[in-house]
Design brief:
There is one protein chain. The protein has two domains: 3-216 and 322-351, HUPs (Rossmann fold, 3-Layer(aba) Sandwich), CATH 3.40.50.620; 236-317, Tyrosyl-Transfer RNA Synthetase (Orthogonal Bundle), CATH 1.10.240. The protein has helices spanning 39-53, 66-72, 76-92, 109-119, 124-128, 131-142, 154-157, 159-169, 182-199, 239-248, 266-274, 277-288, 293-320, 322-351, and strands spanning 3-8, 13-18, 25-32, 58-65, 100-104, 174-177, 207-210. By secondary structure, the chain is mainly alpha-helical. Helix 4 packs across helix 8, helix 8 (159-169) crosses helix 9 (182-199) and helix 10 (239-248) runs antiparallel to helix 13 (293-320). Strand 3 (25-32), helix 1 (39-53) and strand 4 (58-65) form a beta-alpha-beta unit. The protein contains 14 helices and seven strands. Strands 3-4-5 form a three-stranded parallel sheet. Helices cover 53% and strands 11% of the residues. The protein is globular and about 80 Å long. The site of tryptophan has 12 residues, from strand 3, helix 8 and strand 6.
């Protein structure tokens, strides 16, 4: 059951969703459903988000950004499969859906409605400056293309407006994101500010929260683990495949017995992201004592496998049990809409979209 909490945003008080009076912040974050969650996603985003959701003084909204997915990925099977995989992953890792409102963006039609309303107060010049758009223009420039907008959809161009709608719809105060997304949060603040200035104080200005102390993992080839580099280790691959992938991780040519530098070593870094301090320290010693790469890989495999075994089993069960996952998402959407339905009415009224008679 959601209660509303009053938050002061300057001249007027506005309501944000809160579960109790202790709630200070509304945390909201979206996960784009274009791939299979990997170890890097887990360590950098999923684990911190699940841990943050346990706090009693926050209200959390986590959602599957499937309408963002179709900007980058126009393969319907992949979008559908990824949505299921991402949902099952978060649930398998212990996301408590009693505490967190967990939903699919596309189940909340008020978000796309709000997007249009926000589009009408968004300066086109602001969107011209968005990194994702500029990068796409840059690619055209570099290839000597005359039409700099070639292949660029309006979806990509206005991506930050959809993201603003996601955030402003629930009056989120804190938005945990990677550095590459900070500009989008600034744009959401800008758009919210313009709307508030013109139509009255309706939106909270969100703040980005950058998790600087979370690990960024390297992938199989030593570059940052990322699906765009095709160097990932998916979280819940079967045991055999996990072993195979770990064996593929790039190392240098030092022989067993030769001292090795743990810092900068992908195997060590992955181990460290899962191990406690004492374990990490003792592994550091083994590096200095010349642990062989084969031995380290086998050790890392066994260690990760131990950690992932339980949630992997839950994940496999959830992947076979779509009805359950679907129900969890629908329940989450119902909770979210308990707020968004009412809020969009207020926004419509503020812009003059009102019934002509009672
Ligand atoms: N664009 C974000 C990403 O690619 C995902 C996202 C969509 C998001 N909507 C959001 C993140 C709202 C935070 C808040 O990572």
């Amino acid at each position: 059951m959601l209660l509303y909490q009053k938050v002061d945003v300057g001249s007027e008080e506005i309501k944000v969703v809160g579960s109790n009076n202790m709630v200070k912040d509304t945390i909201l974050t979206g996960i784009t459903t274009t791939g299979t969650p990997h170890l890097g996603n887990y360590v950098g985003a999923i684990r911190p988000a699940i841990e943050a959701s346990w706090r009693d003084d926050v209200r959390s909204f986590y959602f599957l950004a499937d309408y963002h997915a179709i900007i980058k990925c126009q393969d319907p099977k992949l979008v559908a499969e990824s949505t299921k995989e991402v949902a099952a992953t978060w649930l398998a890792l212990g996301l408590d859906t009693e505490k967190v409102v967990f939903y699919r963006q596309s189940d909340i039609p008020e978000i796309t409605e709000l997007m249009w309303i926000l589009t009408c107060v968004t300066a086109k010049g602001l969107m011209n400056r968005a990194h994702a758009y500029k990068a796409a223009v840059g690619v055209n420039e570099d290839s000597g293309e005359k039409d700099l907008d070639k292949g660029i959809t309006l979806g990509l161009f206005s991506y930050p407006v959809l993201m603003s709608a996601d955030i402003l719809m629930f009056n989120a105060t804190k938005v945990p994101v990677g550095r590459d997304q900070v500009q989008h949060i600034e744009m959401a603040r800008d758009i919210a500010g313009r709307f508030n200035h013109h139509y009255g104080q309706h939106f909270v200005l969100p703040e980005a929260v950058i998790e600087d102390n979370v690990a960024v993992l390297s992938g199989l080839d030593g570059r940052k683990m990322s699906k765009s580099y095709n160097n990932t280790i998916p979280l819940f691959v079967p045991e055999k495949k996990l072993r195979k992938l770990i064996m593929k991780i790039k190392t240098n040519s030092l022989e067993p017995g030769e001292p090795k530098d743990p810092d900068g070593c992908t195997l060590f870094q992955i181990y460290q992201a899962f191990a406690n301090e004492a374990e990490t320290e003792s592994m550091r010693q083994r590096y200095l004592n010349g642990i062989g790469w084969g031995e380290m890989k086998q050790f890392l495999f066994e260690y990760l496998n131990d950690h992932l075994q339980e949630p992997r089993k839950t994940y496999d069960d959830l992947m076979k049990n779509s009805d359950y996952v679907e129900k969890v998402l629908c329940d989450g959407a119902e909770t979210a809409r308990g707020f968004s339905r009412e809020f969009i009415q207020r926004i419509r009224e503020s812009i003059g979209i009102v019934p002509l008679a009672d």
